[in-house]
Design a protein that fits this description.
The chain is an alpha/beta fold. The chain has a single domain, classed as TIM Barrel. It has helices at about 10-15, 35-45, 45-50, 55-65, 80-85, 105-110, 115-120, 120-135, 150-155, 165-175, 175-200, 215-235, 255-260, 275-280, 300-315, 335-350; strands at about 70-75, 90, 95-100, 140-145, 205-210, 235-240, 240, 245-250, 265-270, 285-290, 320-325. The chain has a seven-stranded parallel β-sheet. It has a two-stranded antiparallel ribbon with strand order 2-3.
Length: about 350
């Protein structure tokens, strides 16, 4: 593989010295970019983008052509895994992802099995290899998956949910069924992420989008334990260097110590947690990623710079911080404002690494 020209992101995740604080943005390849919308129109649908390695490569590289980002992230979707399990993923216009066959029946739950990656998800693995080749060492490539619990939320609810009624009904009344789903999901995610690493992913992130909807004991039992199982099962060396693992639980700031203890290299923060306090709590164990409020991009370039400066100052001196949004960038964000954030982080962070 081509040597990396910019490995700042990987070194920051491992708390090694860097010249500045690296930045990438969750959902950085997305609808806020006109070039993305044009490619999606050519592909015909969101899944048309995801299932074509050529289109996935094209849109993954689009934000890097605009902004000097320090990492690329595979263009895909967390729901490719349950789709490969036969649940029938589709996207309803204006309603987001849905499943034709949500897991409500015990027989269907018992029949759930880890999909064969080469049969069902090879298009993702091919996309990883294609993107890695196209990057030609410019920046590292991040692979990713949803957490077992977050995947289960979609699989049981049948789509997005405001109250997680069906998931929580199962959690409290039939926990053994939910544990079966989570175990299958965890084993599938391990195989899936390891296949991404083998194809060229240089870091991986586990997106636990809905873990923050749980009580503390439920979070430990139904979300964190399965992410720990995944971290323990991942390939951690490739191309002669460590493959860092990032765990991101949206709404999980109250459990930072627990998250930091599962063996990942970095913990992602949403915008509700002060990054300086987070560093004081867990900074010796892990790097931290975050945590600019995505909606702050609707402010002025001056206010964006002030907010970036505040977060950098809160983290303070030294490495171990990967700047990011606290969740995905809005489709309504101005690309120029995203560019202003990247420039500000690179410029303002250098004194913290002197």
């Amino acid at each position: 593989m081509t040597p990396l020209k910019n490995d700042t992101f990987l070194r920051a995740l491992l708390k090694e010295p860097t010249d500045y604080t690296p930045i990438w943005m969750m959902r950085q390849a997305g609808r806020y970019l006109p070039e993305y919308r044009a490619t999606r129109a050519k592909a015909g649908s969101f899944m048309g983008l995801c299932t074509s390695p050529d289109f996935a490569t094209e849109v993954t590289l689009q934000p890097l052509e605009r902004f000097p980002l320090d990492a690329a992230i595979l263009f895909s979707d967390i729901l490719t895994v349950p789709d490969a399990m036969g649940l029938g993923l589709y996207f309803a216009e204006g309603e987001g992802p849905k499943f034709e066959r949500p897991l409500r029946d015990e027989a269907a739950i018992r029949a759930l099995a880890v999909p064969h990656i080469e049969d069902k998800l090879q298009y993702v693995i091919d996309a990883v290899a294609s993107i890695r080749k196209a990057l030609d060492g410019r920046v590292p490539l991040i692979g990713f998956s949803g957490s077992p619990f977050t995947l289960a939320c979609y699989m049981i609810e049948g789509g997005s949910s405001a109250d997680f009624r069906h998931v929580k009904a199962m959690l409290y009344s039939r926990p053994e069924l939910l544990h079966h789903i989570l175990d299958v999901n965890a084993r599938a995610v391990i195989e899936y992420l390891n296949a991404q690493i083998a194809a060229g992913a240089q870091a991986v992130q586990i997106f636990d989008t809905w873990g923050g909807a749980l009580t503390q004991p439920a979070y430990r039992e139904f979300s964190l334990a399965y992410m720990q199982q995944i971290v323990a099962g991942l390939t951690r060396q490739a191309d002669g260097r460590k493959v860092p693992v990032i765990v991101f639980t949206k709404g999980g700031g109250q459990w930072l110590e627990d998250i930091a203890a599962i063996g990942a290299d970095a913990v992602g923060l949403d915008w509700t947690t002060d990054i300086g306090q987070a560093r004081a709590r867990v900074g010796d164990q892990v790097a931290l990623q975050g945590n600019f409020d995505p909606n702050a991009l609707f402010g002025s370039p001056e206010s964006i710079e002030c907010e970036a400066a505040r977060i950098l100052a809160a983290y303070g001196q030294g490495s171990g911080h990967v700047f990011n949004l606290g969740h995905g960038i809005s489709q309504f964000a101005d690309p120029a404002h995203a560019g202003a954030l990247v420039e500000a982080v690179h410029r303002l962070s250098r004194p913290y690494h002197a």
